[in-house]
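Q: Entry one of two.
A:
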Amino acid sequence: MRSPMRTGIQPERIIPETSFYAWEATGAKHKQPFSIGMRDGSLFAFAGLWESWHGGNGEALETCTILTTEANAQVRPIHDRMPVILPPADFADWLDPRTSPGQLHRISSATKDDCIRLIGSAK
């Protein structure tokens, strides 16, 4: 079976979202959920990769992954990783196959600290 993550450059995709959850460990068996989104409540997208391929038995598979990065200063107290967040201004460059690897790296760097907000949720 061929692994989709070992085939080189993948077609870039965006996964539209308004928020996501991360959980902060608050004790041995307790976690506090936090809703994380853009400070102004606007739409963003996760940076994703997608591929069509065939599994070991020949069946067609559609696979997708959300890229993660080092957590920014706001998320770091809760978790060490976070999804790569793309603001709408970067959607076209992320999706354009002509965008240089350097530009893709810049786009997928950690989200600026002042762009997101965390809201604690009830357990």
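Q: Entry two of two.
A:
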Amino acid sequence: MAAPRLKILAVALLVVVAAVALSPIGRSVCCLGGVRSTLKTELRNLVVAQEGFHADSQRYAASLGQLSLRPARHVQLSLDTVTSRGFRARSRYAGVSYDEVAGVCGVWVGDSSLAFEGFREWEPECWYPRRPLWRFGRWRSTEPGR
């Protein structure tokens, strides 16, 4: 009699665990570090590619097509601003539900007018575009540099 109940309890527990893992909250708990790490890694790769392009042509690439760079699956890279003295770029996860979970990451190089507020040059950082972010001891309700 105890064996059938134990089996039912085990199946119910498995269903609950699967439901949590597939929900946005569950994904944020189990996968957030990996997604944000991937976003930052892709920005670091972009910085290296841009610096190589700059070494060859004395300017930064105005589009991603000019660089020999293939971002990881589901990662979208964008160059916000490119000048002769620097650039500013962002990365985000292409999964719609991950925008609020993983946020958006950005990096800037060169001209300090391109800097994201509070970010250091060459260092990718992430923020949440649709909700406040606790950073440097205060809540910020908008994205950096805006």
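A: Comment on entry two: The chain has one domain: 10-140. Residues 10-140 form one domain.
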